[in-house]
Write a sequence for this structure.
């Protein structure tokens, strides 16, 4: 292959990567796919699904490191692909990164929170009725109950997974979650939030085996502006149910004694 042909092939590869990873197909509205419907008329999101990227390890562009596979940013807004941290928060993020092998809450078997549970390297299973959606994760028995009807928030509520409310906007399931305890990380690289976080998620079935997932994070205590991630979630057509992943904490001795499991919600 001569030099010109090599350059052209590289340019085509980059264009295809941008179109699929960050272009209209990733946005959940650029195609003509018509999702199957439930008996009550909503797009059918049921099934076993899993993300296939490296967002769990780092949401931003990153090179490989120990326990950190290289990958591209999944941040689509702002356009630069970086989290818009306040100055003090950025310093804390860098400290988290340096201590990630011990400080990542998942190293202690804690729940992953929102949106990280969606892009863990563990399958999800979605169930839905006319009035609610339930999302289960293989990771430490995590579940999310999302009411689609009017329900008052619980005053003073806080938890690892937050307090979600859902609604349909056309063919997109929109879930707004507040009430976080501020103790989860967004990825293994140390990206974090406070208890003032609001997460607005959008689930749109854009292919027979694809849900396009978006999440906008707004936290005035940590970020200078809201920011958005986007990624495909792939259906595991050969799976009818998720299995179980239990998390164990081990003592740092030669006997590898189990000293505990994950905490409750």
């Amino acid at each position: 292959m001569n030099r010109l042909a090599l350059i052209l092939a590289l340019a085509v590869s980059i264009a295809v990567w941008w179109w699929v990873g960050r272009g209209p197909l990733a946005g959940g509205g650029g195609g003509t796919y018509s999702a199957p419907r439930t008996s009550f008329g909503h797009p059918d999101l049921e099934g076993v699904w899993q993300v296939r990227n490296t967002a769990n390890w780092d949401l931003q562009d990153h090179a490989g490191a120990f326990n950190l596979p290289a990958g591209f940013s999944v941040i689509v807004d702002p356009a630069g692909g970086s989290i818009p941290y306040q100055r003090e928060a950025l310093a804390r993020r860098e400290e988290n990164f340096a201590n990630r092998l011990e400080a990542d809450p998942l190293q202690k078997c804690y729940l992953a929170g929102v949106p990280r549970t969606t892009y863990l390297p563990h399958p999800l299973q979605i169930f839905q009725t006319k009035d609610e959606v339930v999302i289960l994760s293989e990771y430490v028995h995590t579940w999310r109950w999302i009411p689609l009807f009017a329900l008052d928030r619980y005053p003073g509520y806080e938890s690892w997974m937050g307090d979600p409310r859902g609604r349909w906007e056309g063919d997109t399931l929109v879930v707004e979650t507040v009430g976080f305890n501020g103790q989860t990380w967004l990825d293994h690289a140390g990206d974090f939030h406070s208890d003032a976080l609001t997460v607005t998620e959008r689930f749109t079935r854009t292919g027979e085996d694809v849900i396009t997932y978006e999440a906008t994070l707004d936290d005035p205590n940590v970020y200078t502006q809201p920011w958005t991630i986007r990624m495909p979630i792939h259906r595991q057509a050969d799976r009818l149910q998720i299995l179980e992943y239990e998390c164990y904490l081990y003592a740092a001795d030669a006997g590898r004694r189990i000293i505990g499991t994950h905490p409750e919600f």
Observations:
- Confidence is low (pLDDT under 50) at residues 14-30, 254-259.
- Residues 196 and 220 are 7 Å apart (CA to CA).
- The domain at 34-261 is CATH 2.40.128.20 (Lipocalin).
